[in-house]
Amino acid sequence: MANIDEIVAAFQPWRESVKRTAYRPIPRDGHHPGHLSHFGGSPMLAADQQRPICGRCGAILSLLIQLDLVRLPENNLPWQAGLFQLFYCPSMEDEKGNFCDDFEAFSECHKLQVIESNASLVATEAGPFDFPAKDIIEWKPFVDLPGAMEQDLLGLRFDYDFKPNETHVSVHWDEANLHFLDIVDENDNLAELISSAQEGDKYLGWPNWVQGVEYPNCPECGEEMHYFLQIDSENGVDHMFGDVGCGHVSYCPNHPDQIAFTWACG
Ligand SMILES: [Zn+2]
Ligand SMILES: [Zn+2]
User: Fold this and answer.
1) Quick one: 105 and 126 in the same domain?
2) Which residues are 103's β-sheet partners?
3) The pTM is what?
4) Is the domain of 28 the same as that of 127?
């Protein structure tokens, strides 16, 4: 009977078939004028734009991240140049009892936009709740894999049998005719050992889902949106999403102005 290590090793061809390159942003404290990719701080805006306001509480939204699109290490996004910006209202509760800090896609407490590259950009005044600015000085590539929650969408099948003292699992990759039956999953983590998405901030790769696979749907065409950016708690942005939640940004391939931010925690 194969042991857990041998089973995990047997899925290497599957991992090869689903792996993606992701990029880790390497931040440096502080903001240097002219450096357009950063966490926190205040955004650059077109001359005729005001800093966006929270639709719920009216506060000036905080910038989570601004990306200089031409400087991304790899770009299959619908926007090749200009600035991508994610704004967010971190307010837990204001004097009127508004609760922002919202996890839902298309929340009135979020604003996502791309400023075209031909706009003449101006620096903006600091807002009252801006996060500390950290320039992104480098993108470090690494190999990323899908999280366990996404494996069944990618051809793997797990059948669990929860016995009083131990979990038994059968795992199948039907396409490759690979089957392991009735394995004792001692640490209840065979699926995670086969593949896990990396935590932390990253561009591209696979989303590290916390609660379940939650690609938002485009409000215009209903199609599943495409993930491209993960913003994790207390990483580049000094903010905790719920209880150590993890955030994801996605776009609609048909409607590039439809961009969503969501987060979930355990
Ligand atoms: Zn708000
Ligand atoms: Zn759409």
Assistant:
1) yes
2) none
3) 0.95
4) yes
The domain containing residue 206 runs over which residues? Answer: 23-141+197-264
Residue 223 has pLDDT above 80, yes or no: yes
- Model pLDDT, residue 1: 63
Whole-angstrom distance, CA of residue 136 vs CA of residue 116: 20
133 and 111 belong to one structural domain: yes
For residues 63 and 175, membership in a common domain is answered with no
pLDDT in tens, 102-120: 999 999 999 999 999 888 9
Tell whether 78 and 203 lie within a shared domain. Answer: yes
What is the 159 CA–ligand 2 centroid distance (Å)? Answer: 35
Same domain, yes or no, for 170 and 209? no
- Residues 218, 108: one domain? yes
Angle at 138 between CA 137 and CA 143, to 5 degrees: 155
For residue 60, which ligand has an atom nearest its CA? 1
Structurally, the chain folds into a number of domains equal to 2
Give the C-alpha separation, 127 to 131, whole Å: 9
Neighbours of ion ligand 2 (CB under 5 A): 218, 220-221, 252, 254-255
Mean pLDDT of 77-98: 90
Give distance in angstroms: CA of 222 to centre of ligand 2: 6
